TrEMBL record:
Domain Kinesin motor, first and last residues per copy: 22-352
Amino acids binding ATP: G114, A115, T116, G117, A118, G119, K120, T121
Protein name: Kinesin-like protein
Organism phylogeny: Eukaryota, Viridiplantae, Streptophyta, Embryophyta, Tracheophyta
Residues of the full protein shown: 189 to 572 of 781
Family, per entry: Belongs to the TRAFAC class myosin-kinesin ATPase superfamily. Kinesin family. KIN-8 subfamily.
Length: 384
């Protein structure tokens, strides 16, 4: 696929230090909506010093007495984004470093967690005018590839899938549910479309289209509440010569995940289909919280198998990966309980230690003789 003779290969860069072996946790506060303002909602969250989140008010006067002891509770994260933060800043602070690591052949994942309406999809996908992390990451990836001398040698593949009701579906070519299986690269969905991308322009369109295929159902809480988890996978593959002038194949994988609403299903509509659906959402997110707990407590057995979502996130949580969590919260006092719940899990996620990602590489060609090796080295020295 990558004819070494046709393409000029770069030489292995000095390895960047990797992002550490802890999940990085960020919080993003969304602005109060017009409707909320008009409805007289108060703001119950304050962000101080770009790190600390203060919960300042309660849902209503009755809650006030029950929750009094929590008044003024504060949390500290790797960074907290106030409601004025632009998409580019969220991207640069949370994800840019992972993109650099993916270009060195490491794995990275970013997931957005929070209640419906808290700003997960806005953060991940964004709009055509203000593209989110998914699009900015791909844009940055292409810019960085172009800046390297070995341009033309990199292949970028995208796949976009959803987990809905414990079923995995391809968002780029909707059809029958996909089956998960484990291979040497981790958990994969058999038959998933791998779309070869050449530029950012086509990608935004593709993702918007994919997002239209996401399962959304009206619920009492929110008319277009997203009930599914969406996962964008970006795989970058390229070849370089290592210090011994062998040709090595490097593969870096970036997973960008927009989780379904974390609010309790019981708080919405519990009848018939919706209740089954709610139970499954609970199953996935419950499984996620059990995994987080088990990882924090350093347990030997992590219950990834309990849901499709945790099977797919296995690499990201406990595997060979640099992981970022963005917790999305609403400023509205009516969402106090959900905000508190989100901050609780985000705070807990800070404790997870992951195995920091190693470079995924495989030697695919060695120089034919020692003379060839020496020649190649000499050429390289001349070039520099
Ligand atoms: P979620 O995916 O968590 O359910 P959305 O991303 O759909 O929530 O956000 C709910 C609404 O709030 C949308 O109309 C979205 O455009 C808006 N919104 C969310 N975050 C922001 C933000 N940071 N700036 C401006 N509007 C936002
Ligand atoms: Mg959403």
């Amino acid at each position: 696929k990558f004819g070494a003779s046709e393409t000029k290969l770069g030489v292995s860069e000095t390895k960047v230090p990797n992002c550490g072996s802890r999940i990085m946790v960020f919080v993003r506060l969304r602005p109060m909506s017009k409707k909320e303002k008009e409805g007289g909602s108060r703001c119950c969250v304050r962000i101080v010093n770009r790190r600390d989140v203060y919960l300042t008010e309660f849902a209503n006067e009755n809650d006030y007495l029950r929750l009094k002891r929590l008044r003024g509770r504060h949390f500290t994260f790797d960074a907290s984004f106030p409601d004025s933060t632009c998409q580019q800043e969220v991207y640069s602070t949370s994800t840019a470093e992972l993109v650099e690591a993916v270009l060195q052949g490491r794995n990275g994942s970013v997931f957005c967690y929070g209640a419906t309406g808290a700003g997960k999809t806005y953060t991940m996908l964004g709009t055509l005018e203000s593209p989110g992390v998914m699009v900015l990451a791909i844009k940055d990836l292409f810019t960085k590839i172009r800046q390297r001398s070995c341009d033309g040698n990199h292949a970028v593949h995208l796949s976009y899938l959803e987990v809905y009701n414990e079923t995995v579906r391809d968002l780029l070519s909707p059809g029958r549910p996909l089956v998960l299986r484990e291979d040497k690269q981790g958990m994969v969905a058999a038959g998933l479309t791998q779309y070869r991308a050449y530029s950012t322009d086509e990608v935004m369109q593709l993702l918007q289209q994919g997002n239209q295929n996401r399962t959304t159902e009206p619920t009492r809480c929110n008319e277009t509440s997203s009930r599914s988890h969406a996962i964008l996978q970006v795989v970058v593959e390229y070849q370089v010569r290592d210090a011994s002038m062998n040709v090595v194949n490097r593969v870096g994988k970036l997973s960008l995940i927009d989780l379904a609403g974390s609010e309790r299903a019981l708080a919405t509509d519990q009848r018939t289909v919706r209740s089954i659906e709610g139970a499954n959402i609970n199953r996935s997110l419950l499984a996620l919280s059990s995994c987080i707990n088990a990882l924090v407590e350093g347990k030997k057995h992590i219950p990834y198998r309990n849901s499709k979502l945790t099977q797919l996130l296995k690499d990201s949580l406990g595997g060979d990966c640099n992981t970022v969590m963005i917790a999305n919260i609403s400023p509205c006092n009516l969402s106090f309980g959900e905000t508190q719940n989100t901050l609780h899990w985000a705070d807990r996620a800070k404790e997870i230690r992951t195995k920091a990602s190693e470079v995924n590489e495989e030697v695919v060609e060695v120089p034919e003789s020692e003379t060839d090796r020496a020649k190649l080295l000499l050429e390289l020295q001349k070039e520099n």
